[in-house]
Structure formats: C-alpha cells, structure tokens
Amino acid sequence: MVTHEEENACHVFYDGSCPLCRKEIDFYRRREGAERVEWIDVSAEDYPGTGGAPARDEAMKRFHVRRADGGLVSGGAAFAELWAALPELRILGIIFRIPPFSWAIKISYRAFLPMRPALQRIATQRR
Predict the structure, then answer these.
(1) How many whole angstroms separate alpha carbon 17 and alpha carbon 43?
(2) Which of 28, 62, 90, 98 is surrounded by the fewest CB atoms within 10 Å?
C-alpha cells in the first residue's frame, strides 16, 4: 500500500507572507508534476514545524525541501530538489545537484538572502 508520504515527490516549505516567494511558488505550482509536491506555507498560523519539518523561524529565513526519502535540504540545494521533482525542470535539478553547479547555486542563494528584505519591500510597493 502506498502511503501519503510516498505519493509526494517532495515537501516544499515556503514563506507565504513573502510576495516574492508566493510569486515563485505560484510559478512552480502551475508546472506539470506539481500535484505530487506538498506545498507548505510556513507563515500559516497552523504550521506545526514538527515531524521532520524545519522550525518556523528557520523556515522563514531559508527555502527548505524535504525529499521523498525524508532528507531535509535548504537554500540552493532545495531548489535543485524541487526542480528535479518537476518533469519540465528535472534536467536543471539533476545538473544543479552536482559540483560545480551545486556550489554555484549555493553561493548564489547565499548572495540573494541579504537582498531579500529590500526586494520584498519593492514587490509589496508595486502591488
């Protein structure tokens, strides 16, 4: 018998209070295969942050994905896992899992994090 956990390609933990994050997640949710991904808004009041999920404060700071095997990854590696779970982005996911591409996405994500608050303010003002 297939359990609910086995049906999901991965679990995506995203900040639904962030306009940038919502826009990007909406893009991924429209992709083929997105129905096999569990989308978890860590800003929701009922977010448990337990059972293999990242704590809310950590999940609000960085993008996290729990792979189908239960492993939790964050940052650039989390994007590679999400991409690998979506058929039309799978090749990117595979490529960005291996060095030197995995290093590049890790460095790029770390460079993005300090800019995120300013970009969030800009995105909020444009709405």
Answers:
(1) 6
(2) 98
Question: Where would I find the H helices in the chain?
Answer: 4-7, 19-29, 56-61, 76-85, 90-95, 101-112, 116-126
CA 95 vs CA 22, 32, 65, 117, 123: distances in Å: 25, 19, 17, 29, 30
Distance of CA 79 to the CA centre of its chain: 6
Classify strands 10-14 and 64-67 as parallel, antiparallel or unpaired: antiparallel
Tens-binned pLDDT, residue by residue, of the chain (127 aa)? 334 444 678 999 999 998 889 999 999 999 999 999 999 999 999 998 878 899 999 999 999 999 999 999 999 999 999 999 999 999 999 999 999 999 999 999 999 989 988 888 887 787 6
Separation between Cα atoms, residue 78 and residue 100, nearest integer Å: 16
